[in-house]
């Protein structure tokens, strides 16, 4: 599972100011930490490889148990993913699926990721599959079977681009996988689903099945 993370000072620009009391880089780091933590906790994930040029992201991901490879300078997201997949396939099991997961999924639940990956890896052979984000325009997860290039086409309108490239969209009851956080409204939606520990610590809001509650005191 390859997780790309942009340099924190440039990451999540549309989210800047969403939590006025929190430095923006801390929020971007927390989103990535919760995404990586959920992927590492998912029994269906053999290993997590983070592609980043950011030293703080690299340190946190490495400490959590991910493998880290450096980004290609200024090459962009899809080049980072191709680089990460090359590293994963070279060092890992060539008979396994590879997948890309965006690093802005702070509500991600390991069980939902496992269920999605089960759907990804069953069905007609030889086909790339993807899970769109909640609006249906972007992509949260893209996966390729053994021997098939991932051919990532992330960016604006990536769901359509992935579909046009032959990847098959999957839908299922995986709201935490689809809830990427680009804006303050997305973060509120993620909080309603239940944030991971790093992002929850920054928001100071405990979120239960009935919705957000203010912290005590
Ligand atoms: N390694 C790496 N990851 C990237 C790069 N560009 C984007 N990403 C990651 O790709 C994922 C999806 O990107 P976006 O949702 O657009 O996130 P973003 O670029 O941080 O957010 P905006 O600044 O609001 O566009 C996130 O996990 C980003 O951290 C890049 O050049 N290199
Ligand atoms: C890069 C992507 O994220 P977003 O559209 O959320 O910026 C994508 O979905 O391909």
UniProtKB/TrEMBL annotation:
UniProt entry keywords in alphabetical sequence: GTP-binding, Nucleotide-binding, Nucleotidyltransferase, Transferase
Function summary: Guanylyltransferase that catalyzes the activation of phosphoenolpyruvate (PEP) as enolpyruvoyl-2-diphospho-5'-guanosine, via the condensation of PEP with GTP. It is involved in the biosynthesis of coenzyme F420, a hydride carrier cofactor.
Q: Which gene encodes it?
A: fbiD
Instruction: Give the EC number(s) under which this enzyme is classified.
Output: 2.7.7.105
Instruction: State the family it belongs to.
Output: Belongs to the CofC family.
- Put simply, this protein is called Phosphoenolpyruvate guanylyltransferase
- Looking at the record, the residues that make up the MobA-like NTP transferase domain are 41-124
Q: Which GO terms describe its molecular function?
A: GTP binding; phospholactate guanylyltransferase activity
Q: In which pathway does it act?
A: Cofactor biosynthesis; coenzyme F420 biosynthesis
Q: Which SUPFAM superfamilies does the UniProt record give?
A: Nucleotide-diphospho-sugar transferases (SSF53448)
Q: Which InterPro entries match?
A: CofC (IPR002835), MobA-like_NTP_Trfase (IPR025877), Nucleotide-diphossugar_trans (IPR029044)
What broad class of enzyme is this? transferase
Report residues binding phosphoenolpyruvate: 139, 155, 158
The answer to whether the entry has keyword GTP-binding is yes
One GO BP on record is: F420-0 metabolic process
Fetch the PANTHER family from UniProt.
2-PHOSPHO-L-LACTATE GUANYLYLTRANSFERASE (PTHR40392:SF1)
Pfam families, per database record: NTP_transf_3
Top-level division of the source organism's lineage: Bacteria
The UniProt record lists the keyword Transmembrane helix: no
């Amino acid at each position: 599972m390859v997780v790309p993370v942009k340099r924190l000072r440039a990451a999540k620009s549309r989210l800047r100011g969403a939590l006025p009391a929190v430095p923006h880089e801390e929020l971007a780091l927390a989103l990535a930490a919760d995404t990586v933590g959920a992927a590492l906790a998912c029994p269906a994930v053999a290993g997590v490889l983070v592609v980043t040029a950011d030293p703080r992201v690299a340190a946190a991901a490495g400490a959590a148990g991910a493998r880290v490879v450096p980004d290609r300078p200024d090459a962009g997201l899809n080049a980072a993913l191709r680089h990460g997949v090359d590293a994963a396939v070279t060092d890992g099991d060539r008979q396994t699926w590879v997948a890309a997961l965006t690093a802005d999924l702070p509500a991600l639940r390991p069980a939902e990721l496992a269920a999605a990956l089960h759907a990804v890896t069953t069905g007609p052979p030889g086909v790339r599959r993807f899970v769109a984000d909640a609006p249906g325009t972007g992509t949260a997860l893209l996966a390729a079977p053994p021997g098939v290039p991932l051919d990532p086409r992330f960016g604006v309108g990536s769901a359509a681009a992935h579909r046009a490239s032959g990847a098959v969209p999957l839908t299922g009851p995986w709201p935490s996988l689809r809830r990427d956080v680009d804006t303050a409204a997305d973060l509120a939606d993620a909080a309603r689903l239940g944030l991971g520990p790093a992002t929850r610590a920054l928001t100071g809001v405990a979120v239960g099945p009935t919705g957000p509650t203010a912290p005590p005191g």
